[in-house]
From TrEMBL:
GO terms for molecular function: isomerase activity. PROSITE patterns: ENOYL_COA_HYDRATASE. Keywords: Fatty acid metabolism, Isomerase, Lipid metabolism, Plasmid. Residues 238-250 have a biased composition (Basic and acidic residues). Gene3D superfamilies: 2-enoyl-CoA Hydratase, Chain A, domain 1 (3.90.226.10), Lyase 2-enoyl-coa Hydratase, Chain A, domain 2 (1.10.12.10). Belongs to the enoyl-CoA hydratase/isomerase family. Could possibly oxidize fatty acids using specific components. This is CoA isomerase.
Amino acid sequence: MLNRPERLNAMNGPLMDSLAERLGWAARNPDVRCVVLCGSGSSFCAGGDVALMTDAARGASAQDNIGPRIDEQVDALDRRFASIEHLVSMPKPTVAMIRGWALGGGLCLALACDLRFAADDAKLGAGFLKQAISGNFGLAFLLASVLGSARAREFVLLHEWVSATDALLMGLVSAVRPSAELQSYTESVCSRLASGPTFAYGKFKDSLNFAMGTDLRRVLHYEAVNSRMTSLSDDAREAAAAFREKREPRFAGAPETGNTDKGVQR
């Protein structure tokens, strides 16, 4: 369980380290036959903690997008992605039980699970691009795996978030239930899965990952580089300032605001 309910289970270092440790334990433990990932309180996970997105909080500066400094920061991001790898490679069924918000990295955690069951009041969104960040936690890999490339582009570029009903129609979630019934429904499905041929489930997942033909570890690292670079852009700083000041951001659309090439190319 993601357990920072006072912050809508927003991600920080201790939460992600703890989650990776628990998922690693679950993957190795033969007594665990099915894994359910959920959030404490009203939401599944609201993504990265916005309080950690300022340069000061990250210990970053405008000059950090080159040289050894960014390598250190990318390595730190890579370590945070262990939970995604555990969920994708877990040799047993995994289920995300989604209430409230599933945004950014929180959406990625849900997409990394085999099945996603959502309450009828759930809201799902990519989240990253609103902060002028290209995305990480396997966003591109996972969305393309679940939706296909074309629908993934549509979802990220056109939707800040979608309702549970729309998520079901798009194929983002496997089922939608009234909030009061979500836990009992999830438990009933997971009980059936837990009594199934777990070894065969695991080997099927292994074959499916192989058939997809993409190395998730390389994708995660590539995303980490792009995410770190975009997080240091003027647009990302403007997004963070706009959030703090409760206004709409004014994006320049380029790494540096001095670039005058603006607008839609025709």
